[in-house]
Amino acid sequence: MFNKKKLMIMTKLAMYEKLESEHLARATKYFRGDYIGWNIIKTICAITIVYFLCAGMWFLYNSEMLLQNITSLNYIAIIRYAIILYVTLLVAYFVIAYMVYSVKYHKATKALKKYEKGLKQLAKIYVEEASEDGSETPEDADIEVED
Amino acid sequence: MQIIYELREYIKALYAKLDVYIVSLAKFLVAYNILSMINSEIGFFEKINSKAIVLLVSLVCTLLPWGVSVFVTAAFVIVHFYGLSLELAGIAAVLFIIMFCLYLRFGTKDSVFMLVTLLLFSFKLPYLAPIFAGAIASSATVAIPVAFGTIIYYFIGFATQNVEMLSTGGTAEMLTRFKFIIDEMIQNREMILVMITFLVVAILVYTIKKLAIDYAWAIAIAAGAIVNIVLIFIGNMMLGINMETGSIILGTILAVIIMCVLHIFIFAVDYKSKVNVQFEDDEYVYYVKAVPKISADVSINGNGIIPTFIRKTFGIGEKKAKKNNRPSEEHRQSKPMNGSVGARNINARNEKARSEAGTSRAPRAAKVESDMTRQAVAGATRAPRPARTESEAVGTTRAPRPARTESEAVGTTRAPRLARTESETAGATRMPRPVRPVSEMTRENTETPRAPRPVKSDAESVRPTESVTEKSRTTNIE
């Protein structure tokens, strides 16, 4: 015999787990600080790669001018300009990444709370079933399987 | 409007049943068209410029997520550019890496709109891209892949227009070609204007769509179209670009029309697909298929793939019902009604009208199309009914009425009667038997027919007066 209510809760939990697997994995595998921190580090690496690629393209584009003025260039100013640009880009993307991943983690936490609520309902049904003495109640007798 | 509603529900039912195949087909068509377009426009690398490879790669993209199609498209573009010029391939690679690192880092959900933009440009419907993306996407950042798609389209266009310049020359001219490509792309004012316009339109459409106002969709589409035209016109004048005015306006109007059709059939409908899940407890392993509910009228399980409204319009599969609509023999023979010759004449006249009108009339209980139901529901005439018992027949001059159909019988017996209130029980609302006042009998002749009543005892049946509402409540019990 099957408990219809238990089956419905289990089905809904399984469906939720399947459809929201990304959110649930996010919230269950990491703490908030770890999740945001790890993704910010990945974003910083990505920004660094992009920055150096663009810098390389700029050097290629202006290579003639740089080669012609190689002895008269103010290298300190160029390096200072490059560092300021890099730090500005990093800070901007740090803020964007922090906001984006905070929102993602918040949504993941909400999804996890909903999932946990369903798990609590299921646990309650298991406790009720375990405490019964085996006598058939109307709830338990919803579906009978013919052998 | 009913047909549109039914068609929409039919599409929803079809999607619920065949969602896996529909999504796979969509992935295949998008990948195939994009790669074919790239091969036809910039097919400089001969080894991948073949239909067999495009077909094979499209089939692979069908089985994988949407993000893979984006990577495959990027790879095809870079490889074809490599066949033309190393500098072109390098710049294209940097462009794609910038897009992947700066945008796709935060999620690949909306990256498919880059492919959609490319596809719409190739179909000569570029102005549909930002409105479509803004209407469908889940965040305003969809404007970025739309902008990237625009850049890549113009990049491809630039490569096809400067094949000779880019393919000639040796290693010494690499730097020259590199500078030429960068200069042409940065100074392409049309590309910059279209990119900025699409960015603004996509963000605007998304923002308005999300507002909690009436007709948000319609306002979003209209606002997107107007801003699209206005920005391009202003940009044309300020930057001195000669974009065709007619094509802009016509393209935008066409985009609005397509969006309206898509809104009716796709955006306004909550499409859900079936979900297969598996779980277990201590005793069993459960394999569950959750299927979304759809309207029963447009079910496609029992009737193949023909929607209900088409079947009803063209009468497909309704031959059996048509045969039953003719009045049966027993109903044609009306029993004589005591003292009501006028009722008999009305009966005959109505039968004639029914046979002439055929099955086009739709009475109240529309699902059962039998003649008996039509008569019962119309209520104006009576057909012969089974003879009553003596106690019922004595003193009653009611016209004979037909036996109830299944639907009526079910309708009258299905709902259990609610417990009577005190006022009801005190009133003892039952028809008097066997003797009734003439005024009541006259009133009954004009009412809708009732099911035969069981014989009541004298104590229950004796009641001097009663109201019509109480009488109707009594009939509903049976």
Topology:
The complex is a heterodimer of chains A (147) and B (478).
Chain A: H1 4-19, H2 21-29, H3 32-61, H4 63-68, H5 75-131
Chain B: H1 2-42, H2 51-63, H3 66-84, H4 86-102, H5 112-122, H6 128-136, H7 143-161, H8 163-167, H9 174-186, H10 189-209, H11 216-239, H12 245-267, E1 275-280, E2 285-290, H13 308-314, H14 319-324, H15 329-332, H16 341-357, H17 371-378, H18 390-393, H19 406-414, H20 422-427, H21 438-445, H22 458-461, H23 468-477
Antiparallel strand pairs in B: 1-2
Q: How would you describe this protein?
A:
- The complex is a heterodimer of chains A (147) and B (478).
- Chain A is mainly alpha-helical.
- Chain A has 5 helices and no strands.
- Chain A has one domain.
- In chain A, helix 1 packs antiparallel against helix 5.
- The radius of gyration of chain A is 29 Å and the shape is rod-shaped.
- The termini of chain A are close together.
- Chain B is mainly alpha-helical and 478 residues long.
- Chain B has 2 domains: 266 residues, no CATH class; 160 residues, no CATH class.
- Chain B has 23 helices and 2 strands.
- The longest helix of chain B has 41 residues.
- The chains are: A mainly alpha (147), B mainly alpha (478).
- At the A-B interface, helix 1, helix 3 and helix 5 of A face helix 4, helix 9, strand 1 and strand 2 of B.
